[in-house]
Amino acid sequence: MAVHVDVEAVRQVAKLAKLSVADGELPDLARDLERVLALVAVLDEIDVTDVAPLVHPHEQGLMTRPDVPQPGLSQAEALANAPAQLDGCFLTPRVIG
Amino acid sequence: MTATAHVEACLAQIAARDGEVAAFLHVDAAGARQRAAWLDARADGSAPLHGLTIAVKDNIAVAGQPLTAGSRMLAGYVPARDATVVTRLLAAGAVLIGKTNLDEFGMGSSTELSGFAPTRNPLDLARVPGGSSGGSAAAIAADMAWAALGTDTGGSIRQPAAFCGLAGLKPTYGRVSRSGVVAYASSLDQVGPLAKTVRDVARVYAVLAGHDALDATSAVQPVQPVQWRDDLAGLRVGVAREHLDDAVGLDSQIQARIHAALDALRARGAVLVPISLPHTRHGIAAYYLVATAEASANLSRYDGLRYGARAPNPATLDALYTHSRAASLGREVQRRILLGTFALSAGFQDAFYQKACRVRRKIAEDFQTAWRSCDVLLGPTSPVPPWLLGQMTADPLAMYLMDAFTVGPSLAGLPALSVPVGVDAQQLPIGAQLVGQPFQEAMILAVGDVLQRAFAPEAT
Lengths: 97, 460
Fold this sequence. Notes:
The complex is a heterodimer.
Chain A: H1 7-16, H2 26-40, H3 75-79, E1 85-86, E2 89-90
Antiparallel strand pairs in A: 1-2
Chain B: H1 3-21, E1 24-27, H2 29-42, E2 53-57, H3 84-91, E3 95-100, H4 134-141, E4 147-152, H5 158-163, E5 167-170, E6 190-195, H6 198-208, E7 236-240, H7 252-267, E8 271-275, H8 283-298, H9 317-328, H10 331-344, H11 350-370, E9 376-380, H12 396-400, H13 407-412, E10 416-423, E11 429-436, H14 441-455
Helix pairs in contact in B: 1-2, 6-14, 8-10, 8-11
């Protein structure tokens, strides 16, 4: 599936990916993305109509452990790497109002 | 040799050579010395890795030591807990000597895409050590550590092992715990060891392997011990034409050396079985769609809020996210996040991500077909020898193609071992890749040991 990628498409994808991209970088990224999508067009050679997707290499399924409380991080440990904190909480810019 | 003497020898090598090699992002000299002194004074020496130095790729958590995953996004981050693999190494008597450089979040094949500095190949400083576990491989090749942990998503243990003349094992998906390991592509990532010999790789692997309740993808199958052997009577070795005689872009000296490796196995009783892996040429495309889709989800955790770099003075929460990520994630990482987000986005998911997953099944089925007629597969690890620094960085697509032989076993979740099988005319190392059936690490380690000793009889 050949896909044309324009700067608007990159802007939209960057928004979804939470990446701020300068306007000047958009054409280069569009070109890069289009080149990769041209490379992956080789997949169109294969008829996979009746093939189920393989999402995980071994279909054992996820294992769960018994629902028993275990020690976790203390509040101090959880906050130790925070760029900004206040009163035992992660600090963000104002969200409401 | 005492643990202390071994640690001092490694630290001396680091002091002498790491300025030019840049294998390490963090050296824990004080901690390694303290641990070695404790082991010499208190331990009885019976632990399986007693006093041996191990370097840890810097996307694996060691409590109290910086962890960056090669990204400026995580500069200054210090984990509170050890990864399960680290806990197991310490319980086995190992000494952790430091954290090694990598392509940012494991996204690269040369360690040039580290957010900090490129690592150089100690065997030829003008060349790359491979990647993304290039720091781990370089540390061993320069005698800065006895062994190292790497991670492998599409070849990131096997290819640097090949480029630095080492053995490196990517275990079966789920065989080794990933608790405490920075996620790149969760249906592909595995932790594994690198060392100079297959026997040393096996020694570390035996400590790492086994079920871990902290990793929901951890396999419950029992770990098989390796039965070392000298002859390979009756062993069926599959040779895929798409990986050797029909391979596109395969270096002629590497091709000749792999034929010599096959001859060596045959001389020891193995039977060579011509096979086909018909979807080899689709592997790179399927891999890059699956890996980037998963990466786009995994890397959404870097939000500048709870840990990691944060852009200064963001006006809004959204600006905090978008500016922090754009300022601190590298170009290739952003490129892969964008590709993955695109492949998962409405209107394109069926055509790209879902299609890649369907092709992934076809690739896995190719291997299942192969196992009807053979026990292991042998081919080259990399189509080319280590390249010159800077040679590939201008064209990321060219670098993607270098993973042609390693991504297939990754997509199928199979164990694969790179074994050193000599050098080319420029004295650059060549690696052979042995691929095994699921959970048959013991088989490929035993065969790999025979193969390595065929070319280097002293490697026991």
